[in-house]
Amino acid sequence: MGQQDLWRLLSRFGSFKRTSIILQHLRMSTHSAGLGEVLLERKGCAGVITLNRPKFLNALSLNMVRQIYSQLKKWEQDPETFLIIIKGTGEKAFCAGGDVRAVSEAAKTKQNLAQDFFREEYLLNNTIGSCQKPYVALIDGITMGGGVGLSVHGQFRVATERSVFAMPETGLGLFPDVGGGYFLPRLPGKLGYFLALTGFRLKGRDVYRAGIATHFVDSGKMSMLEQDLLALKSPSAKNVANVLATYHAECKTDQDKSFILEEHTDRINSCFSANTVEQIIENLQQDGSPFALEQLKVISKMSPMSLKITLRQLIEGSSKTLQEVLTMEYRLSQACMANHDFHEGVRAVLIDKDQSPKWKPADLKEVTDEDVNNYFKSLGSNDLKL
Fold first, then answer.
1. Closest Cα partner for 144 from 99, 187, 89, 185?
2. Tens digit of pLDDT for each residue in 334-376?
3. Residue 323: helix, strand or coil by DSSP?
4. Among the options 98, 171, 199, 345, which is catalytic?
């Protein structure tokens, strides 16, 4: 049976809301390949944002940021829109991050994209964090960097067994931005500091157990979950939460598996509680366990400058508001654009893919407090205004 035949058959059974939602879903799945980078649709009670660059793991471009920001503002004011849902096209990724390769190329040729991308992305992160309507991110697949910024500040984040979370920026000569300085230090214990400095990947139910996601649902049930959310009538946040809680309770996948970092929790809390990267490294060396030695190996490959600015970012961010953190992170982003390591990281990881960046400075000892302070300096009239 073709989709046109199915359309006629389903239509014959009346105009039930759920039926119409299924039809919309079928119609969209037929045509999404020929549409833009992001789809913005009103469905049922909700505004639905679909990241539509599956070949690029739904990487976030400036054009996408602008479209999402503009529509989100409109939906916030629309009395008929009660709920915002954001999801990704394809089975691999929700959003693998911002298009940092394009940003690096622009910065090297003094184009405005290097300023505009970070400024407008952080404005969007703030808008998501302050959204007055229930915001549901369906993080089914790879969710890193900019993809975390599109989800983690929202009220509800639904992970699946296909979810992969990471903030890998220290290996790119950057820092865990998009509000990482706000949400990471607020994770249990020193888990956020560990994730930020090592870029450690969390998968499946562990994304929920770490506190990144608020719910965990089988990927095969995500379409049905979305339909049930869209079928709600004038829902409150509590109504949305009840639907999500039902699906979460029904999901048994990996329920009996312990959190991957559970046995290392005390070690992480102890080693990563230091106020300097050098002391964290010393703590790991003194610990001497296989886990600690593995983290030492990972950290040794990261940009020394990125490690130092990241630790300070999280320490300062632990007592700042999201808006204050994003202002701080915009300053950091522009300093990174003007320096060597970010462009070298993009070259080594994304362009030449030799995985052998040549950091400058190459050693932590060469990164002075004054060097770090320069990254945090006010940009005056060019500061981010929220």
1. 99
2. 999 999 999 999 999 999 999 999 999 999 999 999 999 999 9
3. helix
4. 98
Closest CA to 89 of 53, 61, 42, 136: 53
At residue 90, does pLDDT exceed 90?
A: yes
> Is 317 labeled as catalytic in the residue annotation?
no
Question: For the chain, percent helix, then strand, then coil, each to nearest 5?
Answer: 55, 10, 35
Q: Is 169 a catalytic residue?
A: yes
Average pLDDT over residues 267-294: 98
How many helices (H) does the chain have, and how many strands (E)? 18, 10
Q: What angle do CA 333, 62, 309 make, to 5 degrees?
A: 15
244, burial (CB in 10 Å: exposed 0-12, middle 13-18, buried 19+): buried
Q: Which of 169, 226, 341, 344 is catalytic?
A: 169
Model pTM score: 0.90
What mean pLDDT is predicted for residues 125-130?
98
Beta bridge mates, 87:
50
Q: Which of 177, 206, 341, 344 is catalytic?
A: 177
Contact 348, 354 (CB under 8 A): yes
Chain centroid, CA 306 distance in Å: 19
d(CA 146, CA 107): 18
Which amino acid appears at position 319 of this protein?
Answer: S
Residue spans of beta strands (DSSP E) within 192-303? 202-203, 215-216
Indicate which residue of 47, 146, 149, 180 is catalytic. 146
